[in-house]
Amino acid sequence: MNSDLLSGKLLSGKVVLVTGASSGIGAAAARVFSDEGATVVLVARREERLAELTGALRAGGAEAAYVAADVSVAEDAARAVDFAVTTYGRLDAAFNNAGIGGDRTPLHLMSDDVYDAIMDTNVRGVWNCLRHEIAAMLPQGAGAIVNNSSVAGLIAIPAAAPYIASKHAVVGLTRAAADEYARQGIRVNAVAPGTTRSEITTDWFARNPGLEELANSATPQGRTAAPEEIAAAAAWLLSDRCPFLTGTVLPVDGGLVNR
């Protein structure tokens, strides 16, 4: 590997799209990617939060912009990608992070509405983003995409069947896209976070006393991850430090899937 790839900031000079950027792992990714030299385009439904985060990044000297959009809507995903390309001239990388968790309910009691909402955001949202991001990257002959799956995309957890199905689907989309576009210079990987501090997990823990302790007891490191730890892994996968890595699902889980 060229020694130049091992020096400097991971994402220096890159234009990176981040979905689900208004909180949790997405907001952490915006900060981490900016610190690593990226120009970031932030995408989420909550415009007030996006504006606040974008302002904070700019105040710190970063180049940042935002698009209020719902990536489960194909036109919104297209608009976000078009904004990045129109504003900055290209799209080098993307972190498809937007997702929801849903209720923890036994499968036979789960409502169709919950199933549909989870699949629309977690699967259709990634599908919509992939289609438009890849289309933007193909003329460049290069690009890197990371999808946010979960350890629930690799194993099963109780009372969360639609969420598990959605995150397994993200793994499938990642591997399919990686195989299909490898020779066009586009790398597609995924991260599979373990228990990570976010609005989703905070809500789950509040509604299910003892759940965090149970999750931590199943994790060899015995703790909940900070969102920045997941963002750092995504930054590496999006960088030029791993040019021969595609189709990989990287567990960032404190060793959970080893058990």
TrEMBL record:
The keyword Oxidoreductase applies. Its EC number is 1.1.1.47. SUPFAM superfamilies: NAD(P)-binding Rossmann-fold domains (SSF51735). One of its GO terms (molecular function) is glucose 1-dehydrogenase [NAD(P)+] activity. Keywords: Oxidoreductase. The keyword Oxidoreductase applies. Residues 14-194 form the Ketoreductase domain. It comes from the Bacteria. Pfam families: adh_short_C2. It is an enzyme of class 1 (oxidoreductase). This is Glucose 1-dehydrogenase. It comes from Streptomyces siderophoricus.
